[in-house]
Amino acid sequence: MLLKDRIAIVHGAGGFVGGAVARTFAEEGARLFLTGRREGRLAAVAEEIGRLGGPEPGIARLDVTDPEEVGRHADSVVSEAGRVDIVFNAVSYGDVQGAPLERMPFDRFAARSRPPWPRSSTLSGPRPGTWRNGAPVWC
Question: What global pTM score does this model have?
Answer without folding.
Answer: 0.74
